[in-house]
Amino acid sequence: MSQVSQLLFTSFQNFKQSLLIPVSGNLEFVRNAAKKVGSTARNQGGNRCKAKHRGWKVTGGYVPAGKILATQNKLHWHPGLNVGFGRTGSLFAIEAGQVIVTCEKVDLNWEHTWVKRNYSGREGLVIYKKHYNIIPEKEHDRFKLIDAV
Prior knowledge:
149 residues, alpha+beta, CATH 2.40.50.100, four-stranded antiparallel beta sheet, four-stranded mixed beta sheet, 2 helices, mitochondrion, Large ribosomal subunit protein bL27m, structural constituent of ribosome
């Protein structure tokens, strides 16, 4: 038993000595950058805002009620038959039907804010603009006569 303990003791001493002696004397420690790379506050150039994709969406096709026909910043297009004018200047279909774009003389409401903003100083002039119109589907004419008056 004493030989086993003596053997364990010497092996433990050798292991301890090997940990204390450095393997290589040429070890170099390099300190890398600790701070992450940040972005700069300078102007990067270009237009960074998200595109709005304004313009006409549907011309000449069939649309359901509520479909947006065009979006605009200025009054490029005006609402015509069965077409509504949204708060942001968008034109939308009030009824389902065929989209027709025509060029007509405008009859403006001079009290409207969009008209004031885009046509101020042009009162009394003849202005022709494009109008979006919706031609609704033809209703059926097949009825049953129930009672004559």
